[in-house]
Design brief:
homodimer, 330 residues, Rossmann fold, seven-stranded parallel β-sheet, three-stranded mixed β-sheet, 11 helices
Chain lengths: 330, 330
């Protein structure tokens, strides 16, 4: 079977591709496990260099997800599964509303329509976000039954994606699942336009011996999940039989509710003598305003029942990053 | 100022146009009350005959709401208010998914974009529906803070409309409000493709001396509101200052939770000696399946706080229909 990962050259997309190559098979539209002979990492721009850890089964395709024909060309086999991760992120969406609608809404509809056109209800896993929550009416702890009241265009388009996936699934056009992600840490590389970018930066930059400038107070609390659990969760959510998911296909992913100060404390414990770059505070009102609308704690009863993984504590999250990206590169 | 009512030649659209003509003014984008000198009733098809109760200020424009340029031509003044009622209805959406997306989603986006293009954040009132609720996780009583889990394409597109209106409002592109309507009764004329059509038919057909064939059991309970209250509610929701509505612009409209049997009992009490056509049962599984997903009772704390009107009992709803449409035509 073929696997398409939109936003595939991003960090999570690449890790997911590697994990699927390692597994070698997934459940196909016919219901049985099938070998994966082709993975396409679809993205808006060429990656800056070769992507490590991939093999002959994987290739990068560059294109604009808002072009219908492009997406239909991509989803060109009946034995297919799609992981739809492509998205304008939170901070980016606030800067360019039209781009957020074009990529997240039009692009998302293109993916849904292309899957529908295959027939046979192929499986789709969509990266949603706890940014679907927010605003004055948001409870202190959000969960699977909390009303979606997003306060960013990013969150609004993710909420719309969840609704469309439920309806396309109900109609039998596809077999969709939405992974409602908390902030995923620790992302390697450079900061991005996600308002939550600091949550990775506060661990990554010090470990790289670089300064980290924090745009929010250290008391800021947010639900986080390690990337290893996120990637494994994507795969497991894909494998769950549709009947086990019922009529609401959006699953609040597991998360730890931690403050930035607690992430820093975990970093200091785990770094164990390494020289760390300095962390300084420089409040950024635009970032603070977005982060303030997000939930600080997220329940995940359905994800727990499905056995989706989670780290035991923030130390484990930092340790995984050091193993995968710091020690790896030394 | 100009008023555009999309879906304007429908029953609620016509009543709303008459009410606005009667009032003569509405709050304009600048914040002050302005005389209404132009009302356009925009709809997909020509009405079968002249629309009574309108005057020189009102005219019908026929067009396809999914055509962007058509909608931009319509929303051609800065001093404007839009009541966006146009929609493929519940049963119709289940028959033609693509049409429902084209009219309800693309059409809705055209209205939002055309208003945004005016600048000055004009007011918009959108007809949403309690069909945004449904499914396995729906509580017995729904309300302003209940999660939207629609089980029809109609309900899904209404939920998406609510999310888009909140985001366009948050961005300052317009000043939106969503009126989340229960089943509106008693609609005159002929049955339509709304799965709730029987709720009007069970009063209307007997009073016309015609047989009513009920597609659902008489025990079926649903939230209903009289059309007089619905129309008045639309106007009042338009007039509320935006600041009073906060960051969630969807307001559960008032409703009475009544069974079909209770509507029939009200009809018998109010009909008071009139000869009534017979009511017979002929279950329609397609209608029953849709209606079964809807809430039976709907709370309306925010609407009550805003003073939106509601009838005291089902008798009052039946009496209004007799006054306006039965005695009127005799």
């Amino acid at each position: 079977m073929k696997v398409v990962i939109t936003g595939g050259t991003g960090f999570i997309g690449r890790m997911l591709a590697r994990r699927i190559l390692e597994l070698g098979q997934l459940t196909g539209p016919a219901g049985g496990r099938e070998p994966v002979d082709e993975i396409v990492l679809f993205d808006a721009v060429e990656p800056p260099g070769p992507l490590p850890g991939l093999d002959h089964r994987a290739r990068v395709v560059v294109g604009d997800i808002s072009e219908r024909a492009r997406v239909f060309d991509l989803i060109d086999r009946d034995d297919i599964a799609v992981f739809h991760l492509a998205s304008v992120v939170s901070g980016g969406g606030e800067l360019d509303f039209d781009l957020a609608l074009r990529v997240n809404l039009t692009g998302g509809l293109n993916v849904l329509e292309a899957l529908r056109a295959r027939g046979g209800a192929p499986r789709l896993v969509f990266a949603s976000s706890v940014a679907v929550f927010g605003g004055a009416a948001m409870p202190t702890v959000v969960g699977d039954t909390t009303k979606r009241t997003p306060q960013t265009t990013y969150g609004a388009t993710k909420a719309i994606g969840e609704l469309l996936i439920n309806d396309y699934t109900r109609k039998g056009f596809l077999d969709g699942r939405a992974a409602r992600l908390p902030t995923i840490v620790v992302r390697p590389g450079r900061p991005n336009l996600a308002a939550s970018s600091f949550a990775s930066g506060v661990v990554r930059e010090p470990l790289n011996g670089e300064p980290c400038v924090l745009p929010v107070p250290v008391e800021t609390r947010m639900p986080v999940l390690g990337y290893r659990s996120a990637v494994e969760g994507f795969v497991r959510l894909h494998e769950v039989p549709g009947a086990a998911l019922g009529d609401d296909r959006a699953i609040n992913f597991p998360s730890l509710s931690v403050t930035v100060a607690e992430m820093i404390a975990a970093l200091r414990r785990v770094a164990d003598g390494r020289a760390l770059g300095p962390i300084t505070a420089a409040p950024d009102p635009a970032i603070e305003a977005i982060v303030a609308t997000w939930p600080t704690e997220s329940e995940f009863a359905r994800a727990a029942a499905l056995g989706l993984p989670i780290e035991a504590n923030p130390d484990q999250i930092v340790r995984a990053y050091i193993e995968d990206f710091v020690d790896e590169s030394h």
